[in-house]
Amino acid sequence: MVNRGCLFQSLLFIGIPLAGLMAYFGLNYSGFCFDQMRYLTDEEKIRSVFDTQNKRTDLLYRVHVDPNNNKYIPYKGFDEYIALYPECCSVNPGGLFYEVPPAKFLDRIFGYDSRDIVVTKFQVRYLDENGSLKTAETRFDNYMANCGQPR
């Protein structure tokens, strides 16, 4: 005969931690940021990608401009950039072919890749060899970790 009290205790001992793990992995999979205990807004995701791209030192190479004869000019901040190019950025625009491969399942459940891809048409500003201000466009597709770190 099976002791029902022992069976119930065993199910509780296994079931409660298993339910907690499933909730944790499920929230990670959905893009929940546990550090801030909330989902990030699209603007926060776009700002994070912009800040990362604006600090890069290899942008002139990306737009096929010689960095020896030209000088990259970073933007003062996201507010300046969005005022100049309001249609620059989107989160999960769909209908596009992304430059990044699909997210892996394990990366999603551990929070390394959220469900979002931020697509940015970045205008690279630089001074050419004559000192004239020029711009060249490049596109960035970035996965986001759940708490906003571009990958």
Polypeptide structure, described:
- Strands 1, 2, 3 and 4 form a 4-stranded antiparallel β-sheet that branches.
- The protein has 5 helices and 4 strands; from the N terminus they run H-H-H-E-H-E-H-E-E.
- The protein is α+β, with helices and mostly antiparallel strands.
- The protein is elongated.
- The chain has helices at residues 4-30, 42-54, 59-62, 78-84, 105-109; strands at 71-72, 89-91, 117-127, 133-143.
- The model has no long low-confidence stretch (mean pLDDT 87).
- It is 37% helix and 18% strand.
Distance between the termini: 56 Å
Strand content: 15-25%
Q: Give the SSE string.
A: HHHEHEHEE
Radius of gyration from the alpha-carbon trace, in angstroms: 22 Å
Structural class: alpha+beta
What's the β-strand tally? 4
Task: Tell me the number of helical segments per DSSP (H or I, 4 or more residues long).
Answer: 5
Q: Main beta sheet, described?
A: 4 strands, antiparallel
Helical content class = 25-40%
Mean pLDDT: 87
Low-pLDDT residue spans: none
Estimate the global geometry from the Cα principal axes: elongated
Keywords:
151 residues, alpha+beta, 4-stranded antiparallel β-sheet, 5 helices, 4 strands, elongated
How is this fold's topology laid out?
Layout: H1 4-30, H2 42-54, H3 59-62, E1 71-72, H4 78-84, E2 89-91, H5 105-109, E3 117-127, E4 133-143
Antiparallel strand pairs: 1-3, 2-3, 3-4
Describe the structure concisely.
By secondary structure, the chain is an alpha+beta fold.
